[in-house]
Design goal:
With 487 residues, this protein is of the alpha/beta class. The chain has 11 helices and 20 strands.
């Protein structure tokens, strides 16, 4: 009997000790690491898993096979600064007083009162780092370190905002519009540490960014961490490092695609190296559609109408892939409507980070991503462009375009080649109704057949005009906030 009691006590002590060892040694992080890879000007049809090629993108394709690929994902606007403000804040850019693509002369920046993904996650104890293109304010106090990021390495704005001509030679004289740009600064933290002077320098950006991203993951592997990796490519001027130059068999654009695909692979290999794959949510997307005026140096809209800088779907519909092994079912495709404004509230939901104090437009898609029954929460999306022109509205599969003027890549536009741009055309857009489920190319106007749908969508659009304004109808929005003014 005495021996039995001793054995029992020994067992209890052993189990208690083992439980303590498990708790102290095999710590399970309660919320996932977050990585957002945001491409620049990558079109809906550029990754091979979205129909691209003849180059290869095996790492992007593997990410899609490991997770969920979306087929109705939209950037909030078809231009850099506006789109990035939406991703960072969960708001329509018009709500933030933001439009266009800012350069070194811009008098505006993202208002410090707006709360970014990085700020929300930093409050939850996340290490936050950014690599790549910022484009929401070109100098202090409006750089990433003042917007929730603890580390930053990259460019303040687009890589074509530099005093270098399309052939790679320095601009001389004052007749060339590029002459007013200063040297393109490469920034670490808040300080300029170098200058991107040549196309060869541009060709090393993807490699340098990737090395910095991998280093951040390695240093922050104990987690949790948030990495925002905003590539400068495939925005012109495109360039690849020597390892990839001339290797794709699909021209320079193909070389660049294969190098950014390599970069995705390096990120995933690093997660596997540190055994972080199972507890890291990885998002891959683009800020807007392809800049088609650059011809063979531009991407592929996947058969959608027009591209960057328009309110047609080729300008805003972009790739979106999300992977989180064990939480998101592998090799799945989702057709529900989703936007880059929805990334912030979804991440906040997953990480229990809370939402910004001011009103946002994004909606959490956590249930949709995790495969729970039912549709996603978004059924509406409004297409703003220029300063605040409401050019179209989508409701479920229907899209109503409002009368306006639009730049076009069709006649009388010309398309450039080998790094040189063509010339935009200008087009009159008439009231038109499209069914995007059956006509994703927006070719067949159905307004005469569905007048009730036209009235319904116009009525919904009027609510957005009241809240966010509309330059086409001369309305001011009651809910618009101001961007910061740079002094």
């Amino acid at each position: 009997m005495r021996n039995s009691l001793l054995a029992l006590l020994f067992g209890v002590c052993f189990l208690s000790s083992w439980s303590y060892v498990q708790r102290s040694t095999f710590y399970v992080q309660p919320t996932p690491n977050i990585i957002i890879i945001n491409m620049d000007d990558m079109g809906y049809g550029d990754p091979v898993c979205y129909g691209g090629g003849p180059y290869k993108t095996p790492n992007i394709d593997a990410l899609a096979a490991r997770g969920k690929r979306f087929t109705n994902f939209y950037a909030a606007q078809a231009v850099c600064t506006a789109s990035r403000s939406a991703l960072m804040t969960g708001c329509y850019p018009t709500r933030l007083g933001i439009s266009g693509a800012w350069d070194h002369m811009s008098k505006y920046a993202l208002n410090p009162d707006e709360e970014t993904i990085a700020e929300l996650l930093q409050k939850k104890g996340y290490a936050t780092g950014m690599v790549g293109k910022w484009h929401l304010g070109h100098k202090e106090p409006y750089l990433p370190l003042q917007n929730g990021f603890q580390e930053f390495f990259g460019l303040p704005y687009s890589n074509d905002m530099w005093p270098v001509d399309y052939d790679g030679t320095d601009v001389t004289g004052t007749s060339n519009r590029k002459a007013y740009y200063p040297p393109l600064p490469l920034i670490s933290g808040n300080k300029t540490i170098g200058i991107v002077r040549t196309l060869d320098d541009q060709g090393h950006l993807t490699k340098r960014y990737t090395e910095k991203a991998v280093d951040f993951i390695g240093r922050k592997k104990s987690g949790p961490f948030f990495l925002y990796f905003a590539h400068s490519m495939v925005h012109v001027p495109i360039a690849a490092s020597e390892k990839f130059r001339g290797k794709s068999g699909a021209g320079l654009f193909g070389d660049v695609m294969e190098e950014v695909d390599w970069s995705v692979g390096e990120i995933m290999k690093t997660l596997e190296k540190y055994k972080l794959t199972e507890n890291t949510l990885v998002i891959f997307t683009s800020d807007n559609g392809p800049w088609l005026i650059y011809g063979n140096h531009a991407g592929n809209s996947g058969g959608l109408r027009e591209g960057k800088g328009t309110a047609w779907d080729g300008g805003l519909k972009v790739p979106f892939i999300i992977s989180w092994p064990g939480k998101i079912k592998s090799n799945t495709v989702e057709s529900s409507l989703m936007t880059n404004m929805d990334i912030l509230p979804t991440i906040a939901d997953i990480c229990e980070a809370g939402l910004p104090s001011q009103k946002i437009d994004g909606l959490s898609f956590r249930g949709l991503m995790e495969g729970k029954p039912g549709k996603g929460p978004r059924s509406e999306f409004v297409y703003y462009y220029e300063r605040n022109n409401l050019k179209a509205i989508r409701k479920d599969g229907w899209k109503l375009n409002f009368p306006c003027r639009s730049q076009t890549y069709g006649p009388p536009a010309t398309i450039g080649k080998d790094g040189y741009p063509g010339q935009y055309g200008s087009d009159t857009v008439y009231l038109a109704l499209y069914n995007l489920y059956t006509d994703p190319g927006e070719d067949r106007d159905l307004k005469a057949h569905f007048p009730d749908v036209v009235r319904q969508l116009d009525s919904i659009a009027q609510k957005y005009r009241v809240a966010l304004g509309d330059g086409l109808t001369g309305q001011s929005g009651s809910e618009v906030r101001e961007a910061a003014k740079i002094k």
